[in-house]
Amino acid sequence: MNSWPPVPTEPPARHPDAPAPDTELPEHYAYCFGCGSEVEHGLHLRATAGDDLTVRSRFLVTETHQGAPGLAHGGLLACAFDEALGTAVGHLLRRPAVTGRLETDFVRPVPVGTVLHIDAHIDGVAGRKVYVSAEGRMNSVVGDIAVRARALFVLVELKHFIDHGRREDLRKVAEDPGLLGRSVDLNP
Ligand SMILES: CCCCCCCC(=O)SCCNC(=O)CCNC(=O)[C@H](O)C(C)(C)COP(=O)(O)OP(=O)(O)OC[C@H]1O[C@@H](n2cnc3c(N)ncnc32)[C@H](O)[C@@H]1OP(=O)(O)O
C-alpha cells in the first residue's frame, strides 16, 4: 500500500468548539443523501464524536441499498464512507470542505441488515488539504472489517456552495436555515 498521507502533513488540531466526545452529531443537511432525514431511501448515517480526531458513524444497510441480491451496492458503501469522512472533517475542524479524492477497499461483502460501524480519523493537514481515513466493521465496533477508505478533503470558502449550488435549493435553505445542521462555522 502507498504511504499515507501521501505528502508531508501537519498534525491536525481539533477545533476548541468541536462537539465533546460521545456527542450525537446532527445531520449536516436535511436533503443530504448520506445523512438527511428528508431523503426517504438515503443512507441515514448517524454519527457520534469520538476522542481526539475521530468520529464514529453507523449505517444500516437496507433493501433499498442493494447492488446484488441481498448485498450492499459498492457505490453506496463508498457514499457512506464519503459521508463519515466528511462528517469528521466538518465537525472536528469546523471548516467547510469538499471531497477531492476518495478511495475504497471492499474487503468483505456486506449483506442487507448489516449495521456498518465506521470509524473515521483525521490523519493530517497540508494547507487546504485534509487527509482522512476510515474502517467499517460489521455489526459491532470490533466486528470484521468490511470496507476501508481514504480520502482527501479540500477546505473551501462558503462561496463554493453559493457559486455552484442550484438557486432553488439555496433559496430553500435561506428561508429555513434549520435545514442545515451547522456543523461548521459559517463565519470562521
Ligand atoms: C459535514 C459534511 C459531510 C459532507 C460529506 C460529503 C462530502 C461531499 O460529497 S462533497 C461533494 C463532492 N466533491 C466535490 O463536488 C468537489 C468538486 N471539486 C472541486 O470543487 C474542486 O476540484 C476542489 C474544491 C476540490 C479543488 O479545487 P480548488 O479549490 O481550485 O483547489 P486546487 O488548487 O485545485 O486544489 C487544492 C489542493 O488539493 C489538491 N487536489 C485537489 N483535488 C485533488 C485530487 N483529486 N487528488 C489529489 N490532489 C487533489 C490540489 O493538487 C491542490 O494541492 P496543492 O495545494 O498542493 O497545490
From TrEMBL:
It is found in: Cell projection, Ruffle membrane; Cytoplasm; Membrane. SUPFAM superfamilies: Thioesterase/thiol ester dehydrase-isomerase (SSF54637). Residues 1-21 are annotated as: Disordered. It holds the Pfam family 4HBT. It is a peripheral membrane protein. Residues 1-11 have a biased composition (Pro residues). GO terms for molecular function: hydrolase activity. The keyword Transit peptide applies. Residues 70-136 form the Thioesterase domain. One of its GO terms (cellular component) is membrane. It catalyses: (5Z,8Z,11Z,14Z)-eicosatetraenoyl-CoA + H2O = (5Z,8Z,11Z,14Z)-eicosatetraenoate + CoA + H(+); octanoyl-CoA + H2O = octanoate + CoA + H(+); hexadecanoyl-CoA + H2O = hexadecanoate + CoA + H(+); tetradecanoyl-CoA + H2O = tetradecanoate + CoA + H(+). It comes from the Bacteria. Keywords: Apoptosis, Cell membrane, Cell projection, Cytoplasm, Fatty acid metabolism, Hydrolase, Lipid metabolism, Membrane, Transit peptide. GO terms for biological process: fatty acid metabolic process. Signal peptide: none annotated. Its EC number is 3.1.2.2. It is an enzyme of class 3 (hydrolase). Belongs to the THEM4/THEM5 thioesterase family. PANTHER family: ACYL-COENZYME A THIOESTERASE THEM4. This is Acyl-coenzyme A thioesterase THEM4.
